[in-house]
Write a structure and sequence with these properties.
Length: 348
């Protein structure tokens, strides 16, 4: 993998990731941009009752919202139309978000573009490109984790207008948080309690139990296992674990890296075959990584959680009052039935 770092017109960093060494990526950004919004200071406030951190980022109200395809800011620049990516072609590109939730002392937000092709999706990438995206995720996690004040790095993809995506181009985001996120904090507490009571690792035991029971396992390879969790919150939700527990993406071994593209692309393609609809299935794909420096880091298990808000071909799963108001989830689809359906739509 070759990484090339350069700057956009307003000073933001952009990085190009290429499979070969011959690509030239040092193209200037010709746009007349002023000071980047990334220089704006977001504010992190603490909820006094829950202890959760909430980011206040009012400058994001003016961010780009559903531009036409010929004005997409994530497509390569062309003669007469400059975008966020100055190069006329790229494989994978990562740049600082122009309208970040986190910036400066409060962290960093990056956009990762998986392909220059506006009309494709991650599921349609080949294995070589998916492996390059994994390499970019790992590289960004390592670099951002080493920055002063960063506590956790979160790589994720939102796809589909139903999810709230405002740019249709295939892309994801990378957040470097100055705090440990609430969901991870709860996981760490549960895992620590289990260790104190039993001496075992809860992540390893959950994975072993799912593999042994089998009815919720969707797909399995030598180095990865994908299963619908026993208490799934979403109609179709799959958790993907490497068989050898590691805390984060940089710690993945070579064999797990080599095997990731095949199983992940197959999972995404199965999601697209779940419903008889012409458009692709909306989803959130979220990497859960250990905090940078936390006493629970050694017990954490890297894993990916993939889920959709679609529950039938013509119905979406909206969060009800019990869920939005009290975080008490109610799932309309039995996890065992969801797993069976995801096995049913396997590639031929």
């Amino acid at each position: 993998m070759k990484r090339t770092s350069t700057r956009l017109a307003d000073g933001r960093e952009i990085l190009y990731y290429d499979t070969g060494d011959g690509a030239v990526r040092a193209f200037p950004d010709t746009r007349p941009l002023g000071t980047s919004a990334s220089a704006t200071r977001s504010e992190v406030r603490r909820d006094p009752l829950l202890g959760d951190r909430v980011v206040i980022a009012s400058h994001r109200q003016g961010r780009t919202h559903h531009p036409p395809a010929d004005a997409c800011p994530l497509c390569p620049s062309t003669e007469g139309r400059a975008s966020e990516i100055p190069a006329p072609h790229y494989e994978v590109a990562v740049f600082e978000n122009r309208f970040p939730s986190l910036a400066g002392d409060t962290g960093r937000c990056e956009v990762i573009c998986f392909t220059p092709d506006h009309l494709t999706s991650f599921a349609e990438l080949d294995e070589e490109r998916a492996a390059l995206v994994l390499a970019a995720w790992s590289d960004r996690t390592a670099e951002l984790s080493a920055r002063e004040g960063i506590r956790q790095v979160y790589c994720f993809e939102n796809r589909g207008a139903e999810i709230g995506v405002t740019l249709a181009h295939p892309h994801g985001q990378i957040y470097a948080f100055p705090f440990v996120t609430p969901r991870t904090t709860r996981m760490l507490a549960t895992v620590a309690d289990h260790r104190a009571r039993t001496g075992g690792n809860l992540f390893e035991e959950v994975l072993a139990a799912e593999r042994a029971e089998g009815t919720r396992v969707v797909l399995e390879t030598e180095h990865w296992t994908a299963f619908v969790p026993y208490a799934a919150r979403w109609p179709y939700e799959v958790h993907l674990y490497p068989r050898h527990r590691v805390p984060d993406l940089p710690a993945l071994g070579d064999a797990a890296r080599a095997g990731f593209p095949q199983i992940y692309l197959e999972l995404l393609r199965r999601f697209d075959r779940l419903f008889d609809r012409p458009e692709p299935t909306p989803y959130i794909s979220a990497w859960h990584q250990a905090p940078v420096a936390d006493e629970g880091r050694a017990d954490f298990a890297l894993h990916l959680e993939l889920f959709t808000v679609r529950r039938t071909a013509d119905k979406l799963k909206y969060l009800a009052g019990t869920e939005s108001g009290m975080e008490a989830y109610m799932n309309d689809v039995r996890p065992e039935d969801a797993a069976a359906r995801l096995r049913e739509v396997a590639s031929a």
